[in-house]
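Journal club side-thread
Mid-discussion, someone asked how the predicted structure for our own chain would compare to the paper's figures. Pasting it here so we can look after the session.
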Amino acid sequence: MLDFYQRSIPMLAALLSDPQRMAAHRVAMSRHGGGPEKAATPFAEYLEAERALGRIAPDADPDAAASLLVGACFQEAFLRYYAEGPDAAAAPRAHAEALARAVVRPLR
């Protein structure tokens, strides 16, 4: 997800700067059942399954944790792109894993 967001920053900037393009993109994404609001769903479903298996706290909020994880990935990708530009290397896998662990650690 970090790599996807990092590579998507230029497209996002183009969409945000052109209301007509953004509207067309929204329509196209809705036709395919997609959109940024769907990004956290697979993570939330995974965390819900882990909660059902007793591997994370019973009072954990999978939707909130998934949103935090996706938001953290977006923020990290944006900062990496901002600091290093469009040719920035993707975040190392170890870094991405550490970020994910830190975000979900409170769920235990």
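Post-session note: DSSP finds five helices and no strands in the chain.
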